[in-house]
Amino acid sequence: MRKTAKAMALLTAASMIMTAFTPVYAESTDTEDTAAVDWENGENIKAIKEKGVITVATGTYVPFEYRDDDDNIVGFDIDLAQYIADKLGVDMEVTDMEFQSIVPSIQNGEYDFSIAAMYKTDERCEVVDMSKSYCDSGMILAVKEDSEYADTVKSLADCDGLKVAVKEGATSYNVAQSFLDENPDVSYEIVQYKDTVGCVSDLLAGRVDVVVNDLLNQKILSQEYEGAKIVCDPFTHAENAIAVQKGKDDLLAFINECIDEYYADGTYDTLWTKWIDASGEGEEAAAAEDAETAE
Fold it and tell me: pTM of this prediction?
């Protein structure tokens, strides 16, 4: 999907809401502290250096990863993945795939790590190891702005009797299903899609009534597909994390160290400005700042 500077401008409001989600490191018990791991002498790190390339699995989730007009995979996550590759002094090879295929590909060792705006959950941490948080986010609801539900839906409790669109295998599905499990007096139909574009497209076509989605992704889609309206503030808090195959403690330790440095050296702020906030100018703002620095 094409991302424009104008679309990124609308994310200023999103960044205001997201200030409540100041990035914090994950404290889940599912990922042990890797600070003491001697990653420099680890066999996985040595193997990556020997082949000279680190392989990365990703999906499609604007503004974190997507194909631009020249068919290049770009976005917040891709820049962070490149930062990690540069720290290791190797090239980067990125493969995009359907979201539900990403975790199995890491489990099988097909790629060195995945980065795909993936929320860190207990379920995922049972099958892969996940890094510290590199960006925090949350779930919201969106409706068609001229629908009869535009002023009545503010929470999942208001979706009784409606069709609710979610991304297949993603947190949006888990959130929608968990609410039903915990609230038997509420009943709505969950409709799953391979990507969030499908969710929003069918929302605007009237085939579903509500979309459950990540705030930042929905802000972009609401611009690209006019007519979708966000109707609430984020009602969950989640940590985006990088996944590696279980047992690759050296690689996980190295990635965690990179995340520490990415916060400390200002890279996080740079990527947030370039891809999410940008004060209304998107990538053009970041390029202008680079030009001013060079002068």
Answer: 0.71
